[in-house]
Write a structure and sequence with these properties.
- The chain has helices at 2-32, 37-56, 61-86, 95-104, 108-126, 128-134, 143-171, 191-207, 218-230, 233-243, 245-254.
- The protein folds into two domains: 1-139, no CATH class; 141-266, no CATH class.
- The chain is 73% helix and 0% strand.
């Protein structure tokens, strides 16, 4: 019972912190008319959760250092990448948020408030693996935890490389109106999303070595659903079809949407 109470307290503190941050970010987004900043702080909320969990949980110190270090490194990298992409173009809101703003009309600010708060809640729900792992008192690492680290390492570098390849492609003015189909983007239309999901699979496998670790499946399951059905692939595909319809349609016909795979004959 004391351990459950401690977990509930940590969860509540994480929720309050994330909701407060997102409220402040919403005020800023409302002022500058750019809801895209939510993506940056969604990623940067995770380091906040990491610090709260690390200092308040009472699990095995080595395990805590390992999983929190992995989480901190991945989310700070993602947050900084999004910061460069979004903060450097504050005057121009991303197409998917412009579309939402048009659809919501006069209710846009109100709806974005709830959208931002939902992002904060999702931060805490997705942090379930870390709450489970950092509460594990067993003073020895399990083979599943090493496998989780291996999966995470592949995913971390895969996502970083995919982001760098896309950024380099977009910087070249000769590529304006073209589709990035080089490197990892040759095998998947969204390799960055795939490796982001694989990162969470690494956390899940790591959590399986802890009591109640199976509950951590909720994180990669939610991430996969969001990426494939909600804010990831669908919005990105719609935006690309609007901006470069012919080129992107051909890209869709030959390239896997999510999982890296060989090209189809187009």
């Amino acid at each position: 019972m004391p351990q459950i109470n401690a977990l509930l307290l940590i969860t509540l503190l994480c929720l309050v912190a994330c909701c407060t941050i997102m409220f402040l970010v919403w005020l800023w987004a409302k002022k500058i008319k750019n809801a895209g900043v939510v993506d940056v702080f969604w990623a940067l909320n995770f380091p906040v959760i990491t610090l709260i969990v690390f200092f308040l949980s009472d699990g095995f110190e080595t395990r805590k250092l390992l999983i929190c270090g992995m989480f901190l490194l991945a989310e700070v990298r993602l947050g900084l990448h999004l910061w460069q992409r979004v903060i450097g173009h504050l005057a121009e809101e991303e197409g998917r948020y412009q579309q939402l703003r048009k659809e919501w009309g006069e209710k846009a600010d109100r709806n974005f408030f709830f959208f931002f708060q939902f992002q904060a809640i999702s931060n805490v729900i997705l942090a379930i693996p870390f709450l489970i792992i950092t509460a594990n008192p067993v003073k020895e690492l399990d083979i599943l935890e090493y496998i989780g680290v291996a999966i995470w390492t592949i995913a971390f570098f895969g996502e970083m490389i995919a982001d760098q390849q896309l950024a380099k492609f977009k910087k070249d003015p000769n590529n304006k109106g073209k589709v990035c189909d080089r490197g990892l983007w040759y095998y998947s239309r969204h390799p960055n999303y795939f490796f982001e999901w694989l990162t969470w699979m690494g956390y899940f496998v790591f959590a399986l070595a802890s009591p109640w670790g199976i509950l951590a499946i909720i994180s990669p399951a939610i991430i996969l659903y969001l990426l494939l059905k909600v804010t990831g692939v669908p919005n990105n595909e719609e935006q690309n079809l609007r901006s470069k319809p012919i080129a992107y349609k051909k890209y869709q016909e030959t390239t896997s949407a999510f999982f890296p795979w060989i090209k189809k004959d187009g």
